[in-house]
Amino acid sequence: MTISMNKDIDTSSATPLQVVPINRPDAAALTDASRATSRKSRVLILPTTDGLSFERVKNIVYLEAAGNYTTVYFVNGRKVVVCKTLSDVENMLPDRAFVRIHRSHSIHLRYILKYVRGKGGHVVMHEGAQLPVASGQRDAFLAAIHAYFR
């Protein structure tokens, strides 16, 4: 069956249209796929409240947990709230460049300006952000620094 809205068009040789379903992955499937490809492409697909945000890993300074949400802070001062836990976002990142320093913070080792000793101490990040280092995470943090800067 061929339908024509314009009577001046010859439809005798027209073929009917076929409707082919398109499989559209949902946001969860895209973020699962980004885990597998993030190490290669260095771009993360982050689910936000508005949709999806495509971000370069090299521009991430640190992550901050807030319940089931994570705020991602960038070099240019911008921040994006992600609809994932800190642990979920960490699983999408390259293992070597990021380290958990506190139950609420994970940092990109590239952007550490200073580590100040104390009970656990704290780090001063790019643009002056000061983040606490948990005493239970200090040894793993220092080992990660030594491995990263070798």
Number of E-state strands:
10
| DSSP summary: helix tally | 3
Order the strands across the largest sheet as they lie in space.
Answer: 5-4-3-7-6
Return residue spans where pLDDT drops below 50 for at least 5 consecutive residues.
1-9, 13-24, 36-40
Q: What integer value in Å does the Rg equal?
A: 23 Å
Span between termini:
70 Å
Reported for the largest beta sheet, the result is: 5 strands, antiparallel
Instruction: Give the ordered list of helices and strands.
Output: HEEEEEHEEEEEH
DSSP helix fraction: 10-25%
Q: Assess the beta-strand content as a share of residues.
A: 25-35%
Estimated structural class? alpha+beta
Q: What is the global morphology?
A: globular
What does the average pLDDT come to? Answer: 81
Structural commentary:
The chain contains three helices and ten strands. With 150 residues, the chain is of the alpha+beta class. The strands form three sheets. A five-stranded antiparallel sheet has the order 5-4-3-7-6. Strand 8 (112-116) and strand 9 form a beta hairpin.
Descriptive tags:
150 residues; alpha+beta; 5-stranded antiparallel beta sheet; disordered N terminus
Summarize the model shown:
This protein is α+β, with helices and mostly antiparallel strands. Helices cover about 20% and strands about 30% of the residues.
